[in-house]
Amino acid sequence: MGLNNVSLREQNIVLIGFMGAGKTTIGKAVARKLYRDFIDIDEEIEKQFNMPTSQIFQVFGEKTFREKEKEIIQDFCKNQRLKIISLGGGAFLQEEIKETCLANSIVFYLSLSWESWKERISMIIDNRPVLQGKNYEEMKELFEKRQPIYEEHHSKVTTDNQNVEEIADYIVSSLKTAWDIYEPNR
Ligand SMILES: Nc1ncnc2c1ncn2[C@@H]1O[C@H](COP(=O)(O)OP(=O)(O)O)[C@@H](O)[C@H]1O
Ligand SMILES: O=C(O)C1=C[C@@H](OP(=O)(O)O)[C@@H](O)[C@H](O)C1
Ligand SMILES: [Mg+2]
């Protein structure tokens, strides 16, 4: 059963965007501000395999990681409500994930310019297997190639030069506005 008949206020909030855009960090802050549970899909995958993502890629390969990613996202999106869910940056490459998330939840795209993103490379490179072995130009190519897949969303937040609190506050206030407009008096 899908959740498309669930009230807007109870729908899960899903964060999408490129690796390092801040989905995990900002998702946690949004969950705290709304008194909701936070789910990080990478963390759920890691719990199931009992190893970090880089090791899952090494031992089982990316295909297995992607299958588990799809299974877990579909399960949360179809069977849970009131959650704040941060996806991994590659999840929306799978059409079925994209469709399920858009149909059952409110999808926020955290967008970050290449100029800002490249400042984060050193912070994220060690545990992002998809970036490993890539030079600067190849990372830029991947960054640009992936931008269009995030363009299907319900709301876009440009995060350049904003701190975590500011971005989370913006998301919360934008949600509250939507809830009040579309579901007043609840
Ligand atoms: N708005 C922000 N300003 C500065 N650093 C940030 C911001 N959002 C996230 N970060 C940092 O960027 C890195 C990647 O964040 P993370 O939440 O893991 O991104 P994602 O889940 O999208 O890969 C972390 O080191 C985090 O502390
Ligand atoms: O973009 C990707 O293909 C990936 C992004 C990662 O998540 P973050 O976007 O949270 O870094 C994680 O799912 C995995 O390393 C693959
Ligand atoms: Mg993350």
From TrEMBL:
Q: In which pathway does it act?
A: Metabolic intermediate biosynthesis; chorismate biosynthesis; chorismate from D-erythrose 4-phosphate and phosphoenolpyruvate: step 5/7
Is Kinase one of the keywords UniProt gives this record? yes
Binding positions (Mg(2+))? T24
Molecular function via GO: kinase activity
Q: Which InterPro entries does the UniProt entry name for this protein?
A: P-loop_NTPase, Shikimate/glucono_kinase, Shikimate_kinase/TSH1, Shikimate_kinase_CS
> Which superkingdom is the protein from?
Bacteria
Cofactor(s) this protein requires: Mg(2+)
EC assignment: the record states: 2.7.1.71
- An example of a Pfam family matching this protein is SKI
Binding residues annotated for ATP, in chain numbering = G20, A21, G22, K23, T24, T25, R128, Q162
Family membership noted in the UniProt record = Belongs to the shikimate kinase family.
What do we know about how this protein assembles, alone or with others? Monomer.
Instruction: Briefly state the protein's biological role.
Output: Catalyzes the specific phosphorylation of the 3-hydroxyl group of shikimic acid using ATP as a cosubstrate.
The protein's name in its UniProt record: Shikimate kinase
Q: Which organism is it from?
A: Oceanobacillus caeni
Highest classification ranks of the organism: Bacteria, Bacillati, Bacillota, Bacilli, Bacillales
